[in-house]
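for the record, two folds in this file. i put them one after another cuz i was lazy. first one right below, seq on top, structure tokens after. the second one comes after a little note so u can tell where it starts
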Amino acid sequence: KQPWFPPWARFLARRTAFRDWTLAKIRSARRSEERPASVMSLLLDARYDDASEMDDDEICDQLVTLLLAGHETTAITLANAISRVSQHADIARGLRDELQSSDEILRAPYLSAFIDETLRLDVVVPDVGRIANREFALDDQLTVRKGQLVVFSIDGLHMDPELYPEPLTFRPERFLARKFAPHEYVAFGGGVRRCIGAAFSDFETKIMLATLLRSKTWVLTRGKPDRRVRRNVTMGPRHGVPIRIT
């Protein structure tokens, strides 16, 4: 039975076409005697504790998760970082000075602090949920029961003035002055179940941003930053971050 709502019908058709294409790629890779090193080959070679392999549907789900969770989020982070660099000339100078004096991009402290502050103010995934594995009292009025879903606002936590004085001020130095606990800075979800791709995302963002900072100068083509809007599960600039590179 076809769905009556045309946008939903178009989405389902495109999702089916994309899934069929992905499954065909997986089956082709399975038949290949020599597979180049890739995420696909790693998933095909992976085994569970009982030595069984993942079926095609499971691998497809993993690939789609990597594509959506690992591409869009990092792209939005990079766009937000470029926007912040363009708004703060003094911070841009500090970043370029650090990068010119060191080849250790991944260990550049001010670059790390700048990205952390960007993620604090421009949260890409604004909320995160956890399912309670036991009953507990959240406060005097509220008891969370086992199996209930608890969702909290990352934006709200990152705006707590007790943790982040002058929370609306963009100040990377706050991440140089102290190290925030996993329950205080939760751009990647926080706690022991934080995003499995957090380190990879940080690596990608540093490399791309450092490359741009070292070799290019840009200005925003709009007079003011674009407002953030909900983009499915993420938050990002409504119309992107158009820039002019010289």
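(here's the note) second protein begins now
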Amino acid sequence: MPELPEVERYRTLLGAAALGRPVTEVVAPDAWYLKRGTSVAELRAALVGRRLVAARRRGKLLLAEVEGAPDAPVLGLRFGMSGRLLVDDAAGVDRLLYAPAGDDARYDRFGLRFADGGVLRVSDPRRLGGVELDPDVDALGPDALTVTARRLGAALAGSAPLKARLLDQARVAGIGNLVADEALWRAGLAPGRAAGGLDGAEVALLAAAVRSTLRLLIGRGGSHTGDLMPERRPGGHCPRDGAELRRATIGGRTSWWCPTHQR
């Protein structure tokens, strides 16, 4: 499932392989995939004959800037639970958890053809992602890869469970289920604690753990590559101290943690 590590790799691929190439065609066979009223006609007017000139990201939202500043639109790509970005058949990530293996053209939901014959594609078997122009970036919280302890502390305010706050994209952008469990395990914090009950030292520890966890998983190739991941199962044990992991639903998601060192 694409979390921040996957989308950061998509951003890198987009920046390296798609920028500066004139767009000749917008391919949008799935009207469901166009969000917030965006139409095929609007996408063609915004993109055909122009180049993508910059790739950036906020959380799990990939943003492609189009030439023609200052009034040119921004193309926003969301990847849901199974979306992959490919440019000229090169993929940003090799595989996604809970998504079919391989590359099946039936799952292509959006694409751009370039003047040199190359193609950018979004493949999404579960159709939970989407494409839009000028997405509302301000609706998202600070990016988790660079979040400071001060901003994280503000995002955690309240009595909701700690993990639920981390998963709330309006508070911190980019953390999904796997990253949350891995970062909390590394920080030694239980996911069910009241988020607003952390003291300053714990908030600083968690902020550092979130950033370092994300950097590690980006380098390894995705959110499924954490040390906790192989043990997120019945009978799984903590890789740090060997205690049997506990499981619960927190923030609407299945959560695994160590009862020994996560407090």
